[in-house]
Amino acid sequence: MNFLNLIEQKRDGSELSPEAIAEAMAAFSTGAIPDYQMAAFLMAVNFQGMSVKETHALTLAMRDSGEVLQFPKDDRPIVDKHSTGGVGDKVSLVLAPLLACLGYRVPMISGRGLGITGGTLDKLESIPGFNTQLTAEQIVSQVQEIGVAMGGQTAEIAPADKRLYALRDVTGTVPSIPLITASILSKKLAENLNALVMDVKFGAAAFMTDVGQARALAQSIVSLAGECGVKTTALLTGMDAPLGRAAGNWLEVQEAVACLEGNGPEDLEKLVIACATHLPGGDAEHAREELASGRPRAKFDELLAAQGADLDEFTAKLKKDSIALVVKEFVSPIGGFVRQCDARIIGELVRDLGGGRLNQDSVIQPEVGADQLCRHGSAVRAGEVLGRVHAMTEEGAATAFGRLSEAIEISTDPPELPVLVADVVE
Ligand code: URA
Questions:
Q1: CA 391, CA 344: separation in Å to the nearest integer?
Q2: Which candidate in 114, 231, 350, 362 could, as Cys together with 195 as Cys, close a disulfide (CB 3.0–4.6 Å)?
Q3: pLDDT in tens, 146-169
Q4: Residue 47 and residue 22: Cα distance in Å, rounded?
Q5: Could you tell me the pTM of the whole model?
Q6: How far apart are the C-alpha atoms of 193 and 109, rounded to whole Å?
Q7: What angle do CA 234, 371, 322 make, to 5 degrees?
């Protein structure tokens, strides 16, 4: 095919035909289009955008670069949740087993963290022995058997997205609404879902800092997913402060387990329940009761065991206050109210300790992070702990400690409380 012609058409603002887009994606998948040409095309899309029709065609073509999971027919709806990424966002770890207990089938395919936003896959990999590399066949059989599987994008699921994402990441073409829409939905459509709940974050530590941009992304995803037969609702949620009180891979697993045991932070539990409520048949009261029943906690262990985790080692690890080598507490120099606990700085601090990636090849340090983080708006006394850093070296701890003190601001007057769920797009 003449891909140069397509690049030029897009550069000049023409609408591409669905057939041309499908042909281009098929050619890219077989290696017939070099990365430099695809990079130019992505930049043209970044500047010129795509119509709904073009985005639809791109999404289906990316989905069809791989397999679509095929589930046997049964009464349980097939659902998933996807977040655009935040700091301390461990909702999926609590929500997936809860949804399985509520009678849904949950083939949850998650991503790795990049930059300051964490990824569910990295969190799961801090669990001893847990295998995130499931084949499409394994995902289907485990979901049929226990209602839930959590893994990474396999070679069979939307492989074109994997290559395109890697190119976007190094060519400045990540923040494009049609490209993000196609990237997320190609994977979700490959899961063959009946329904999806999206958590689209906005604020200091989100991909989209502005609520208007987040709403535009949410509308793009909700309407296209609906056209493709996946009933989708998007929550617009604030990401100025970390979610919960812990950020860092293992620390977040610990906090997710606390939430499954009824001892989690209030904002985390609220968001888990909000996600469950916005799926078809969802009911907040029922979801709350199910979470409190202890069954989702047992389901989490069942999920871990099914994917090879060592439950004895996991339980022993959960009991430890920290698995990092150095822990440093930051205490409040004065009494007052927490005016700010800046999620962007906390995210950078975790990444720089080794808990996140500076590039695709970075090796993750699961032990590091920050916990016992103070809640925005809460009253604090002088000498009260406002947060702790967990590091692998004294030097790392000292730097992180400095960043933590920068992230937290105490005021004498109570500040306005930030909203958790600012809006719902459906
Ligand atoms: N998450 C994805 O899977 N793709 C994007 O493009 C952005 C966030």
A1: 18
A2: 231
A3: 999 999 988 889 999 989 988 998
A4: 21
A5: 0.95
A6: 12
A7: 125
